[in-house]
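Hello forum,

I keep getting stuck at the same step: I have a sequence, I want structure tokens, and every attempt I make locally crashes halfway through. Rather than fight my setup again tonight, could one of you with a working pipeline run this one for me? It's a single chain of 770 residues.
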Amino acid sequence: MDQARSTISKIFNGEPHSYTRFNLTRNMEGDNSQVEMKLSSDMDEETGGNGVGEHLNHNSNRKPYVAQKLGRTPKNLCFMAVATLLIFIIGYLIGYLVHRKKDLAPTCADSMVRYDDGAAIETGAAPLMNWDKVKKLLAEQVSADKFDSVFREFSSDNHRAGSRSDEVLGEKVVKRFREYGMKTWTDEHFVKVQDAPASGSNSFSYKGKEERPTGFLSYSANGTITGAVLYAFYGEEKNLRLLKSRNVNMTGRVMLVKTGRISFAEKVANAAKMGASAVLIYPDPSKASIGGSTQLYGHVHLGSGDPYTPGFPSFNHTQFPPINSSGLPKILAQTITLDMAISILRQLGGANAPEEWESPNKLGDDSDAITLGVDNVLSEKKIVNVFGVIKGFVDADRYVVIGAQRDAWGPGFAASTVGTSVLVELARSISDMVKNGGFKPRRSIVFASWSAGEYGSVGATEWLEGYLSSLSMKAFSYINLDGVVTGQKYFKVAASPLLHGLVESTLKEVNSPNKAGSLFSEFAKDNMESNVLEPLKLDNAAYPFLAFSGIPSVSFRFTSENSDYMYFGTTLDTREKLNVATGNKVPQLAEAATRVAGHMVLRLVHDHLLRMDVEKYNKIIRNRVAQINNKVHSVLRLQPQLLSKVLTMQWLMSAYGSYSRASSKLAADIQNSNMEDIEMCRTLNDRIMAVERNFLSPYVSPRESPFRHILLGSGPHTLQGLYGHLEALRMDHPEADAKLFRNQFALATWTIQGCANSLAGDVWSLDNEI
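Reply #2:
Ran it on my machine without issues. Output:
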């Protein structure tokens, strides 16, 4: 290039600063290099913000310009010849550069190009830092010693959703994000929730004694009822089916159930299906250390978000449709203390509880009447979600979201303080890695602090409802930090199957806070599936991300029990209680939780391809299809008139086959693709991102069935729902409908086939055998 400039200067005998310069530029999306000629020694540069740090973008708007005034005398013919030669040289150089375009184009691994003066100029593509160096940078940032001060900053004795204390904590989170150089914003919603009565308590009367518990269950039906008490163990479906098999009348009964195994909302919904008039929930006696007078708080909405605007965000300007969520119960529900429950249980008559329950209690009979009154107050509250972002350097419009609940019924140390502290520390750590460590994430990281989590992930769900069309295309994962530390004996993970491989590799890389070795060697041992993995439950904040929005999600926790932490939903959730549960290792466990979340989020924004295994769903679909197939044959044997000559399993099996082939084809495409090609990486990642989203049934209403995922959601549209419907047909249940089943069966089949079609990629690659 210097030789060309020298030649041009000599030909024109011009000033040394007037030369032709070639400027190569690249953009964030990997567009082709541009070639520009510039007659100036000046070079303008623009800088653009990245949330943390700056990207450099070098684009010149000056246009090529060559002008020479040629005379008409023979003397000037030599100048014409020289000009022709100049044009030839320029054309040759342009051709040479275009020929090298492929080598100079930005790739996934190469992000630097050198100008002729030797200066290294950054382009749009992020350099791929060695993963071991990324892990080392994170390890240098995270320390248990830093957590005590963070815990103190984000602790509060009372910060219920919508309160001033809740807002103050949100402001502290925003302040921290800004200190780290992150772009921040807030998201306001006006939601309706139920709080305790104006009198301060609801009431019940049993055997002439009135009690007034101050705990309550938001979204219960209001009113007063009288019915006979029925002890129903945990209130699970199998518990109630067992009672029904013993001809126990459940109609109009007030069911007495204990906490655990399933959510409050599921207990109430199960009781309502059996015709009960109310449900009383008390602390599990096996958790006797909770105390006899401890009040319980919670909600009974079988769903998430504001139940008075199902499927719609509760923005202030939204014209709400006049509908309520189908998950709102129509029966009364109330919590009572352990002492109150023991008093009732001791006076119950009737038959003994089933032996399977290993309970000394009686079931109760018609003489055990109880009167319950619920008068909760419906109120509107403004809640605020707060966010910060670290923008990516290649695919900035694709992001992983990591979030934590900020509100609580009382101190909420384990429920909200620890998670919020981990969120803030992780934001600080990764921000510093970007600013001072040289780490450049390929994709963006969004940090979120949610409000109204105690009322059923209201803040998070309203955000999802408000921006669903955008999030479903750009948010590729959610990491939940709620309740990450409640003990130290076990480590549990609930996640989308797409993320199981990422979880496994993370556990192998993060050291245990309890003993030498990795988390995998201590907790997973030889079988991660049975020792670590657990189902993602309805009351988990990650559930609406997965089942409502189709975003692969993960939630994890250090715990002392397989069940929930006993102090959740009480005013006893303090640092002192958690110290007892963890052996005074709260900071060390919070550090380990930060490393787990950090490793997962950094892997997701570091690698060329998203760490998601689409073939993990093959086994799940195959097992569900096999279960349905066996149940269909069972129905045909017992009720042949219902399905004979109408239903065939061929369609569903073919859809499963299509998905299996499409997932295998994607794996082959990855093996045969150039991972240094930015556009190729983006195309493959788009196919991966679409999998979870395409398992959402497009044929159901978000009001009736908000959790539309046919494999991990809930409702009659799911494969599990189809199996249950077949069981009802087999038992000749009066509510079983063969025509409705066939319709749901066809829609579920086509949902799987549609997912397979999307996964296959281009339209000419589709499998149309179905």
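Residues 413-436 form the longest helix (24 residues). If your local run keeps crashing, start a new thread with the error log.
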